[in-house]
Amino acid sequence: MKTEILKLLEKDCRLTAGQIASMLGASENEVVNAIAECEADGLIIGYMAQVDWDKAGSEAVTALIEVKVTPQRGDGYERIAERIYQYEEVESTYLMSGAYDLCVIISGRTLKEVAAFVSSRLSTIDGVSGTATHFILKKYKEKHLVFEKMPEQQERMVFF
Amino acid sequence: MISYEKVLSEKVQNVAPSGIRKFFDILEEMKDAISLGVGEPDFITPWHIRDAGVWSLEKGYTKYTSNAGMLTLRTEISAYMNRRFSLQYDPSSQILVTVGGSEAIDLSLRALINPGDEIIIPVPSFVCYIPLTQMSGGVPVTLETKHEEGFRVTPEALKALITPKTKAIILPYPCNPTGGIMRRSDLEALAEVVKDTQIVLISDEIYAELTYSGKHVSPANIPGLEDRTIVINGMSKSYAMTGWRLGYVCGPREIIRQLIKLHQFAIMSAPTTAQYAAIEALSKGDADIERMRSEYDKRRRLLVAGLRKIGIPCNEPLGAFYVFPCIAGTGLGSDEFCERLLVEEKVAVISGSAFGPGGEGFVRMCYAASNEQITEALTRIERFLGRL
Q1: Domains of chain A, with CATH numbers?
Q2: Mean pLDDT, residues A32-51 taken together
Q3: B161 and B139 in one domain?
Q4: Residue A1 in contact with partner chain B when CB distance is under 8 A
Q5: Residue B255: CATH number of its domain
Q6: Is the pLDDT at A5 greater than 80, yes or no?
Q7: What are the Cα distances from residue B68, in Å, to A63, A89, B95, B261?
Q8: CB A8 to CB B306 under 8 A?
Q9: Is B138 in a helix, a strand, or coil?
């Protein structure tokens, strides 16, 4: 049941325990307890809204930065990853296979701000051997959510 | 001056138009209305299926296909019927691809009916069976299914309606609007009734994949019924492909051969683009079916639990995507209930009376809607009930 609850909340975290209980044929109490356990065990790490900042008038920019790293004895990539992801500006950090090691997504108010972050903070970290910064020009879809919905079909038949 | 009443066919003029139209004109004008009235998936066709249609256009596959539909598609249909429902049909002689399940229903009735033949039609059910029977010169004989019996056809009710003129029985299960299904034992009981007769079963299984309790059983699965059953299915409900207009009909080769004649002269062949999309859907779309069914199932439970909580009794619907609650306890007739609910609370549901005799006292609510819409509709219905 936990997996089912997680799937439902991942799609819509505003569902109430009562609604989830109806959908899964469980009691409200069971659902409340299961969610509490998921939170305590770190299966659920947060709840948030997906915002279209472009539409909200924000000029902020987002960049995806490829980071090459020299792994450190004992700690591998962990320590460097931790040093990077603790910056407020960093949205996401992933360890990658392939041509580079860490993928860091950051957002800043301006292009300059992002550039400054890369040159003064990121590339100066011991063990970071190179970076390549790609600015995101337009977001189409994130977490299964589409930013600009296509117009709906017109003139649908309404009854049968 | 020409008198249209005189030139037009009496049979056609006598068919009553759907009375729901006016109701939906009101709905169109309304802002913030929630419609649980529409009877189609709220999903759009999965992209890989749409893409297959687009690809076929890019390749220039825009000509007619063979009358019965592309053999590749019929082969996929055959494999699908076997994989999903354990039914065996020869792609080259027992399958016809049609323009939606609706055409298949029309063809089947036209191919069977001689003037005055009786067609037994369980009601409440989909609105097309009665007019199509009439237009083919047949006589619709309605069989009222009961709320207490899960809206199933019982052998007793069936036996009582059979006469020497009975040509066929329509089995619309899983059922729009009642959500009723027929289990294997129910079908076996019907088999006992018809086995020594010349009666044909037209099984409209368009909602077969939307069965929430156990697996769908077709009458063609029942020994003794396979050689007298016409199975109608299609892409609309299982793959969210209503607008593609693609269905199919499977059955004994002697029957299919006659259906192909009607289809070839009236239609030529089903739309080619849709046939390519259907090949993709049937061969690679099982996961889409499961995903959408599981989604409908959750909404179904949400709506049923919500209705019971606010005091509207309803059967647990076991198939399709409709709940058919009884609103007789409110003291309102079905039409009045729907009209007032729409005007006062801006929630559209369909009056049970639209689905034939036996529908009065019920309304149809479609749960192919978002969780938010269902929840908000329930809030509004509760408020509405509080004022009655």
Answers
A1: 2-40 (1.10.10), 61-138 (3.30.70.920)
A2: 96
A3: yes
A4: no
A5: 3.40.640.10
A6: yes
A7: 55, 61, 7, 9
A8: no
A9: coil
- Which residues span the domain enclosing B12? 4-45+287-387
Residues B190 and B339 in one domain: no
Query: Quick check: B300 and B320 in contact, CB under 8 A?
Result: no
How high is the pLDDT of residue B22?
Answer: 63
Q: What is the predicted pLDDT for the residue at A160?
A: 53
Domain boundary among B284, B318, B353: B284
- What is the value of ipTM here, to two decimals? 0.77
Q: How many domains does chain B have?
A: 2
Interface of A with B in 51-90 (CB under 8 A): none
Q: What is the value of pTM for the model shown? A: 0.90
A155 in contact with chain B, both atoms CB, cutoff 8 A: no
Could you tell me if B84 and B217 lie in one domain? yes
pLDDT in tens, B94-133: 999 999 999 999 999 999 999 999 999 999 999 999 999 9
Q: What distance in Å separates the CA atoms of residue B198 and residue B189, rounded to the nearest whole number?
A: 17
| pLDDT, tens digit, 9 for 90 and up, residues B51-65 | 999 999 999 999 999
Residue with tokens 């606010």: B310
Q: Are residues B102 and B220 in the same domain?
A: yes
Kindly list the residues from chain A whose CB atom is less than 8 angstroms away from the CB atom of residue B128.
Answer: 160
Q: What is the pLDDT of residue B29?
A: 78
The pLDDT-based confidence of A19 (bands split at 50, 70, 90) is very high
Report d(CA A147, CA B56) in Å as an integer.
29
